[in-house]
Design goal:
single chain; five-stranded antiparallel β-sheet; alpha+beta; 14% strand; globular; 5 strands
Length: 179
Amino acid sequence: MGSDSHHQDGVGVPDELDRLWTPHRMAYISGANKPADGTPGECPFCRVPGLDDEEGLVVHRGEVSFVVLNLYPYSPGHLMVCPYRHVADYTELTEEELLEVARFTQRAMAVVRSVSGAHGFNIGMNQGAIAGAGIAAHLHQHVVPRWAGDQNFMPIIGRTKTLPQLMDETRRLLAKAWG
């Protein structure tokens, strides 16, 4: 088979996309740091509050919840708001937890917007493994900043995917802006 056969079946044909490798996402894909059985002792969201802010990527701590950078971000400044209590379902939150998670989500948007000029946000939580929750045993609200032309158009039009800032620098900037 000559080189022409490779072009016919797509093998060896460049797709003209630039590659910016993000190997930190592979740990997420392979299941690193995910609790095996949902017990608090194996849960990263239960472990993080016991770490110092820098090591745990904690941006802010409240009375019943905390804000942490996503270790495997979809975009720079991707935060998660988590109750300290190991609880899986949104309907199980106490009134105090519900209020603080909502307030911290609102504040996270304002802080990320002030630091990075985000144009919009995806906010939400996946309830249960079947709904896409990577760590279903401990509820966490995602706050994902978005910019015009970021994830949707960069890979298609710009042929590039970028995460332009190191995690510790992002955490430091957000924690400082949080006040």
